[in-house]
Design goal:
2 domains, five-stranded parallel sheet, seven-stranded mixed sheet, alpha/beta, single chain, Rossmann fold, 14 helices
């Protein structure tokens, strides 16, 4: 039976991208995308009550008619006739499709269970949704930092060390060639990639810590004979952009700089191909994981004294312990050159974690490997 996936998305690009990777693991590279309607994304009493009801009673207590009404109320297809065309495909297949609903994050997970009930589909959730027991899902993809150390992996769970991702090496190589032509870069030049995020609730920036790291990186690159290929994000704050304009844009050490607030192009896949090292600010777990999927061992730039707090800090520490990233929590007060001492910039094989997780997911559902 051919796998067919429906993604339930809250509109967050990072969540949608991970769900698409999960659909790809299941064998569907063109999944249907269903979006939470705006009033549901904003939460409130209706969302909370539905989630609590599912948590306590389980999705099996929903009638298919009730599930269909909830889907019509809270979900809409990405394209106008997307769901109608999908329904026609299911009807035409006459049972030849194996249906999955896929979601990342808590609000999408709630409606993913409802949609799975309506379609008679199996449900796969990525990350750990609040209040919803894992037993309600056919399979849960759980980040390693969400499981207590030493605890056995529960049934129906696949553990991942990274945010889900897949590095398309062929597409990235093509993009790298285009970037070299457009920006007069040398394909065999010595480049270091720099991905700058921005402060968030999970990882606030403190003082000038990031600017100090970027200044140290610029000096280190000059001493090592490397050039910096730099991209910001839409979260990069104005004071950091101003500093970069003053210190990076006029520097011969920086032949490429993209301001994401002004240019929607994402150069990171090309940078992963062109650069021998990748540096990422510690607020951006997704970009750090992307670099690892591409085969790099990224260096985490500090955003505050004392290390990254909370779950994000634990996730970064786990990556460092596994040898997947270069990170420490400031306890030794080591500056950037010392933190890099003894590390090698050699790139490894891409998509190692993707293949491991994909094999576990497909084995769980009895899909051919």
């Amino acid at each position: 039976m051919q796998p067919r996936c429906v993604i339930v998305s809250d509109g967050k690009r990072g969540h949608e991208n991970q769900s698409r990777v999960l659909a790809r693991m299941l064998g569907d590279e063109s999944p249907l995308l269903m979006l939470l309607r705006q009033r549901y994304r904003e939460g409130g009493l209706s969302e909370a009550l539905l989630r609590l009801s599912l948590a306590l009673r389980g999705p099996g207590t929903l009638s298919k008619r009730r599930a269909a009404r909830l889907v019509a109320r809270w979900l809409e297809p990405e394209t106008k006739y997307g769901f109608r065309d999908f329904a026609n495909e299911v009807a035409t297949a006459q049972g030849g499709l194996r249906l999955f609903t896929v979601s990342t994050g808590t609000p999408p997970a709630t409606l993913s269970l409802v949609l799975a009930r309506m379609l008679g589909a199996e449900s796969v959730v990525n990350m750990t949704p609040s209040l919803l027991p894992r037993r309600h899902f056919s399979l849960s993809i759980v980040p390693a930092h969400d499981l207590p150390a030493g605890e056995a992996v529960p049934p129906g769970v696949v553990v991942t060390r990274l945010a889900l991702g897949y590095h398309d090496a062929a597409a990235a190589e093509f993009m790298a060639g285009q970037l070299c032509l457009e920006r007069q870069l040398e394909r065999d030049g010595r480049y270091w990639g720099v991905a700058i995020g921005g402060p968030s609730a999970a990882c606030p920036w403190a003082g000038d810590r990031v600017l100090d790291e970027l200044a140290a990186l610029h000096g280190l690159a000059r001493g090592e004979g490397a050039q910096l290929l730099v991209t910001t994000s839409r979260r990069t704050p104005p004071h950091c952009l101003g500093w970069l304009r003053s210190h990076y844009l006029a520097s011969p050490q920086v032949p490429y700089f993209l301001n994401a607030a002004e240019d929607p192009f994402n150069p990171l896949p090309a940078l992963y191909e062109l650069c021998e090292r990748i540096f990422v600010t510690g607020d951006s777990y997704s970009m750090i994981c992307e670099a690892v999927h591409a085969g790099h061992r990224p260096v985490v730039l500090r955003t505050r004294v004392g290390g990254v707090p909370g779950k994000l800090g634990r996730a970064l520490a786990a990556l460092a312990e596994a040898g997947l990233a270069v990170y420490d929590d400031d306890s030794a007060e080591r500056e950037l050159p010392e933190r890099l001492s003894g590390t090698t910039p050699m790139r490894g094989e891409p998509n190692v974690e993707y293949r491991r997780v994909a094999a576990a997911v497909r084995a769980h559902f009895g899909l051919p490997l």
